[in-house]
Amino acid sequence: MSAGLISVRNLTKDYGDNRGVFDISLDIQEGEVFGYLGTNGSGKTTTIRHMMGFLKPDSGEVLVNGLNPWRQAPEVMKDVSYIPGEIAFPDLPTGTDFFKVQAQFLGVKDFTYMNHLIDLLGLDPSANLKRMSKGMKQKTAIVAALMGDKKILIMDEPTTGLDPLMRETFLELVREEKKKGRTIFMSSHIFEEIEDVCDRVAIIGNGEIKDVLSLYKLRHDTPRMFRITFANEAAAQEYVNRIEEMPPHCAPEAAVDEDGASSRENQAAVSFAVSAAETDRAIKATKGLPVVSVDETHEDLEEYFMNIYRKEIRQ
Question: Fewer CB within 10 Å, N or C, the chain?
């Protein structure tokens, strides 16, 4: 893959005691929503602070739109909006006062989109800035970032403090920004929101990149696990015979579930893995057989993430 609009090359920042980030490389392409997934303390914020030019790398480099954020921060910020993980507002009385200062800083003269964001998020900008709840402060930070209409959005745990309904509203905003062609880098420890809006995701743990994957491929290319329950064991065995005639990758784990056969009036279940491309054929193979139920699961992002960490623990 070509170098991205945001490019991280062998980035290392070592705080000692295995804290920091170590030899990280990432490329975020123009127009994509890129998720950065990891537990608290895994290195997400350290990476983002390098993208923003707040930290100088021990080694390696970060380029944003071809510019070095540490050396060329003012030029980089012309194209970047930022939602920090820890929000600290200036000493101003209300959200309205803050938005006025932010608008001057960003050169915003048309407040139509800002007002749309305020209404959508249910924000009262007249509230005292220092006395806002965590959720209200988060909404204020979101409006302040998105009102700038920048080509790049960098967001560190942007849904912190939002209730589930408002989190979905925010994710809809992310989708809208993507349609506008924005490039979005978004860290989170919440699997569902990364899986819901991102094109690709990097998994970070202990300051190291464990994997970078396409969520489209995760949804469509990973095997489906099926458990089909038949009215009797003879039907289950007939189904096994049928799917064994299909390509080997279609049913590598086909087996009659004896527990299912004995548990409920001679019913029997067949469990197997099937590729997405062969799902339709696997279902059609049940034709004419007495099917009681069909259960399907596939590996989601949370399971993929946990499998990586289980492997780390075993090693």
Answer: C
DSSP 49-73: HHHTTSS--SEEEEEETTB-TTT-H
pLDDT for the residue numbered 264: 54
Structural tokens at position 69: 């954020």
Distance of CA 103 to the CA centre of its chain: 30
pTM of the model: 0.77
Report the DSSP pairing between strands 33-37 and 200-205. Answer: parallel
Q: How far apart are CA 147 and CA 54, in angstroms?
A: 22
Residue 176 has pLDDT above 80, yes or no: yes
DSSP string, the chain: ----SEEEEEEEEEEETTEEEEEEEEEE-TT-EEEEE--TTSSHHHHHHHHTTSS--SEEEEEETTB-TTT-HHHHHTSEEEE-SS----S-SBHHHHHHHHHHHHT----HHHHHHHHHHT--TTSBTTT--HHHHHHHHHHHHHTT--SEEEEESTTTT--HHHHHHHHHHHHHHHHTT-EEEEEES-HHHHHHH-SEEEEEETTEEEEEEEHHHHHHHSPEEEEEEESSHHHHHHHHHHHHTS-TTT-TT-EEEHHHHHHSTT-EEEEEEE-GGGHHHHHHTTTTS-EEEEEEEE--HHHHHHHHHHHHHH-
Phi-psi sector, 247: left (phi>0), alpha (psi -120 to 50), beta: beta
Of 23-27, 104-108, 223-227, 246-250, which range is least confident? 246-250
**pLDDT on residue 172:** 94
Cα separation of 271 and 255, whole Å?
6
Angstrom distance (rounded) from CA 9 to CA 59: 9
Write down the pLDDT at residue 265.
64
What is the tens place of the pLDDT at every residue in 129-165? 989 999 999 999 999 999 988 999 999 999 999 999 9
pLDDT tier for residue 257 given thresholds of 50, 70 and 90: low
